[in-house]
Amino acid sequence: MNRNLISFFLVPLTGLFLLFHQAAFQPALGQGDHGRDLYVFAQILNGQVPYLDFWWVYGPLMPYYYALFFKIFGMAIPSILIGKILLTVLAGTLIFFSLSRVIPALFAYMAALWFWTFQPDFYFTYNHIGGVTCLMAFTFCLFLYVIRPRTKYLSFALFFIFLLSLIKINFGLANLFALIIFYRLFDSFHRIPKTAGKQYLTQAAGIIVPLLLFAIYYLLLYKLSFFEIRQCLPYMSGDQPYHSTLWKTLYALGHAIVFNLLSTPANKIFAVFTISMIFLSLFKIFFGKAAPEERKTMIIVFFLLVFLYFINLHEYLLSGVLYRSYWATPFSTMLLFLIIGYGVKDISLSLQKILFAALFVIIFLRFVDGVNTIQNKKIPEQFLTHKRGRITSGNPENWFVTVERTMNFLQKEIPTQETFFALPYDPLYYYLADKKSPTRQLIFFEHINIPKEQERKIIKELEAHHTNWVVVSNRSWSAEKGLGVLGQTYCPLIGEYLEKNFTLVAEFGDWRKPAGWSANHATRILKRKTAL
């Protein structure tokens, strides 16, 4: 059988093997961020539209993708995790096919395994793995272009940039810029003549795709007010609670990398090995016997990955928020194995296999540790039993108690034809209860900058939907940066409205401790004094 055909099946099957144990588990389940995702995916099946019918802070594409998995596998969280796993497998497979063009297939395979076991997870949303997968597809197209400059590869790359822009628009536009810069420099360096096809591509990248994206976002957003658009696309000054200087974030990133490399004896050994590989690869490039064309290709691919790493680090550089650096880590993984693969390319096959085995042991131990962690969490106290849940999570046991008790109360007391209002950011209850939010706004925090005009609109929506019940979580009173105190530092009109028209009828969880993102969750149920 053809070796490429074997790889086509073997690599993704390995990814499925490494990740399938995560199909009914996630390290943390947030009633806010994950609740928003789940509610939005479910509402897509009900014919709702992103932005217009509900607040959504990413691009419009992924809700439709995940809604398909709800449709196929049923309305439960594992259905969404299946969709996420498939994208992760595809991203790792694309890493393999990219690197296998320039280094031995064994080490390209190892890069995919490393990605599947060590890539940090965007733990707070299911959306971003779609963007990472598009980035890996985009990178694969650029690798193909480096090996064999054909305009069709750039056209495919542009298509994946278009999809990426519908997942996370700032990353789409940043990589559109990267695409134009890359192929212009590459063509100039190789003296590739401008063809009619390349001129059309330039026009598509510089004019047609941006206009098409503008038209799509405009059609989805034009009915909203300016402040509602800002809440969905928070890219202006003051829309984010976290800001940092470039030098501060670069220092923090460098410090984190050095600390990680020196944190354990095993990490120190790996650091020495990696540095040795860097020097060996540099020696081979400048003093080795490699053909000039191969040498040139390696240099181009190396700087391409470095360029893409920093392009996709832009959110982190502006904010200093660590998880925003995860967009760039697939490129650091590719760089690591590019260096290793090229460094050992000409040594004996036996030594290559020994090195491969050593790296495989590291990955295997990481995999076993992950499996054991999940098995240790699989206890009844950490399983969300609700029919729309059906998932084990690493949340504290008291989080599950609060959610289950709150849901039992809501399902028992609220009539089928009525809904409730959840705030400041608890749409998980809408999803679990199969209820539509009485307002398109799903989040209420200080950094959301909700003006009084919008507060009045929300109150009118509550009245119009005869909302007689309210769920308020303890995140409504938070010292965490950007959150604030409901009714005092944000939404004073809504706070006054609730105090005037509703009364406390139930309380679950511990309100004495500060609320966390997925820990120490507590709720209060309010009922309208005079039902509408």
Question: Care to describe what's here?
Answer:
It is a single chain. The longest helix has 29 residues, at 349-377. This protein has helices spanning 3-19, 33-45, 61-73, 77-99, 105-118, 128-147, 151-165, 169-190, 196-221, 226-232, 246-262, 265-287, 292-311, 314-319, 329-343, 349-377, 397-413, 428-433, 452-464, 492-501; strands spanning 25-26, 383-384, 391-393, 421-423, 469-473, 477-478, 484-485, 502-508, 523-528. With 532 residues, the protein is an alpha/beta fold. The model has no long low-confidence stretch (mean pLDDT 92). It is built from 20 helices and 9 strands. It starts with a helix and ends with a strand. Helix content is 61%, strand content 6%. A 4-stranded mixed sheet has the order 4-5-9-8. The chain has a 3-stranded mixed sheet with strand order 1-3-2.
- Estimate the helix proportion, in percent: 55-70%
DSSP strand tally: 9
Strand fraction equals 5-15%
The ordered H/E elements are: HEHHHHHHHHHHHHHHHEEHEHHEEEHEE
Q: Helix/strand-derived class? A: alpha/beta
- Mean pLDDT comes to 92
Q: What Rg, in angstroms, do the CA atoms define? A: 25 Å
How many helices? The count is 20
Lateral arrangement of strands in the main beta sheet: 4-5-9-8
Please tell me what the overall shape is: globular
Distance between the termini: 71 Å
Low-confidence stretches: none
The major sheet is characterized as:
4 strands, mixed
